[in-house]
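Journal club side-thread
Mid-discussion, someone asked how the predicted structure for our own chain would compare to the paper's figures. Pasting it here so we can look after the session.
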Amino acid sequence: MATTIPIPIPTILCPPPFHKPPVPMTLGEAPLYRLSDSTLHWVDPLISPPELHILPIHPLTGVPLGPSRTLQLSDSVSVFYFRKNVKGSYIWAYYAGIAYMDEETGKLEVLREIIGNMRMRKAVAFGLGGPPETYGKPRGRLWMYDPDGSLHQMFEGVVCGNGIDWSPDNKTFYLNDSVGQMVYAFDFDLEQGSISNQTTLVDFHGTEGEPDGMVVDTDGNLWIAVYGTNRVMVFDPSGKKIKELVFSGNRLTCPTWGGVNHDILFISSAKGGEGLDGKADEGGNMFNYKVMDGPKGKAEHEFAG
């Protein structure tokens, strides 16, 4: 019988952090690039008070063009999107629910409070996961908030709902359950905004990492920040791992596409102690990786409300 020799997965060593805040972030999260003024936005929800950071970025190289602006927030925010029709305004998933926020003042306009002791993620669809003291119990839910103000529960039974994204044709919806260590795929009906036929795309059980934030490229590959490792892992639409990016921080949290050509991957991270292999850990800073060939990213969704 012939022996099948496994083909090594490409592993790419990536550059050190491209941006270091004066103090490493407790939990850098939810980076989002805005093309209109080439700025990168992200939050640190666990520092007191929580912070929003806005950094001017060169649209071709991803290099910072100046210092970041920091805005102190009135509540802990886990993720946000830009509002399509309102300049300088975000829709937020904050600790208790959903709100708009003004970029200049930091003022929250609460839209819906859902359950006060749970943590929300992502619009247009929001994944709701429990805080750390409830981890291990699948109480999290996935919500959809429509521009008309209606709220719909789409899925339940998540331990810690995290990264979400859609396939390029909008026919498949992906959801990461970080503490549950699963990546799920669903059929997605764009007209109805509904999901069905849940399947497990990637199972991280037996590994040291948790699937955290995620983005999809133009070929439908999933780029997943794996918390507890120093890697962004890339999986094809069938769930096969095809590439790994290696960074100098072992608590990577969330990637986003940016740059005028959507060819720069920006990654947030959380600070930690000693790094992997005994080397100094550079978590709590911002990383990037420029795609030189192959599929690139796609623009992030904006909220229509």
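Post-session note: The two ends are 61 Å apart (CA to CA).
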